[in-house]
Amino acid sequence: MQALLKRWTHALLEWLGVTSSSSDAMDRWVAFALVVLAALLIDLFLQLIVVRGIRRLVERTRVKWDDRLFSVPVLNRSCHVVIAVLLTAVLPVIFDEQSVGRIVVLRMMQVFIVFTFLRLINALLCAAFHIVSLRPDWQNKPIKGLRQTAQGFFTIVAVILIVAILIDKSPVKLLTGLGASAAVLMLVFRDSIMGFVSGIQLSANNMLQVGDWISVPKYGADGTVEEVSLTTVKIRNWDNTLAMLPPYLLTTDSFTNWHAMQLSGGRRVMRSVSIDMTSVHFCTPEMLARFRRIDLLRDYIDLTEQRVEAYNAAHGIAPGERKINGLHQTNLGVFRAYLVRYLEAEVPVNKSMTLMVRQLQPTETGIPIQLYFFTDTVVWTEYEGIQSDVFDHVLAVIPEFGLRVFQSPAGSDVAALGDYLQGDDAAGDPGADAPVANDSDRPDAEDSPSKGSSSAGPE
Fold first, then answer.
1. What is the Cα–Cα distance from 38 to 36, expressed in whole angstroms?
2. What SS3 class is residue 370?
């Protein structure tokens, strides 16, 4: 092949009037320009005819992966590689064997080959990773960092080869010399190396995907992952600001990934309301009769009263005895039972998940009653609406059970207390003109003991 190209080149030189014995450098550079022009025409022909023909064939196939593998960038860069090889084989023939021009052109063409191969490899990597990302197992995985790492590796190899070609040294010797500066390279590419390792961990453990909602409170990030690259994880917060985090922070520090919650079909509500402990007491028959008029509690009251009466009768506890003996319902217990039935019947909850109403540890702010359930939606606005409606109802219904909500005194409470105390002071100070009542003016004066009586009080 090279002999054929040499004959064609010599024929071109003879046609131009340039022979191997010619010392006219201008003629050789004119031949050089004509060869380069011919290569450009061949490259144009390949892109207009060959590339378009291959694209038409690829588009007719049923599979889709070949559309990316034989994409226009890949085919165009393949044409550039072919032209680079042809130029490397033809151009040096124009010059004398030991001439400086031949050496310079040969090295430049070798550099050009390495550069075109690097661009082709980058295009193939992009196509390959795009094909992989279309598979269900790899969709939304943070594989961009892996692609960037592969591209960075081949770029470093290409740079080493180019430097070795320009200085006319073996790449092995060049790598040996670089070994001494490995510590410096590690320091320079620290973030890239750590990002590469972290990207592998994130992908292998399925910790993070593009589109996930994550929270990293330590760094003020709370939103959707938009991009995972070799050195950066881009997160769009809910206020539309962007947070940029190095990938290794997500493997060394803790973060919350809400993707599993979104897939589960239910989002948890775990909120408490504090009850004043002094408002908790046993239920009277009148209270139970009033509670029976609540549709959600009617069956519960009847069944619980039957169980209470059976227990008390079995233990010889009469109905009229003190409430502290035996079993008796409390208004707080009835309230908790009402909340459970209210959540099950009136609230769009996920019935396949946990639902309960429980007491937490009493504190100086009352006894917390916690509602723990999951909504049947994970949409943020719908979830907040359900949660707000539930606690609107809870706060409004608490007085119906003889309970009081505990909260710190507000300004209006302090003002009302001041007005109350001022009213008491005014009632206790009748003024100088007010008549002074004596014992004879009292309606019970006849029944009261005399002034000199030794009785200390009513018997």
1. 5
2. strand
Q: How far is CA 179 from CA 79, 84, 150, 151, 155, in A?
A: 36, 32, 21, 21, 18
By C-alpha distance, which of 177, 174, 194, 2 is closest to 88?
2
Is residue 334 classed exposed, middle or buried when 0-12, 13-18 and 19+ CB atoms within 10 A define those classes? buried
Per-residue pLDDT of 66-89, as tens digits, reads 777 778 788 888 888 888 888 877
pLDDT in tens, 140-163: 566 666 777 788 788 888 888 888
- For the segment 266-303, what is each residue's pLDDT rounded down to a tens digit? 999 999 999 999 999 999 899 999 999 999 999 999 99
The Cα angle at residue 132 between residues 122 and 265, in degrees rounded to 5: 135
Report CA-CA distances (Å) from 163 to 159, 173, 401.
6, 11, 85
Q: How far apart are CA 62 and CA 285, in angstroms?
A: 78
Distances (CA, A) of 195 to 189, 199, 251: 10, 6, 10
Task: Using alpha carbons, list the distances in angstroms from residue 135 to 62, 65, 140.
Answer: 16, 10, 10
Residues 197 and 113: beta-carbon distance below 8 Å: no
CA distance 228 to 249: 13
Is residue 371 a contact partner of residue 343, using CB atoms and an 8 Å limit?
Answer: yes
Q: Please state the pTM of the whole predicted model.
A: 0.55
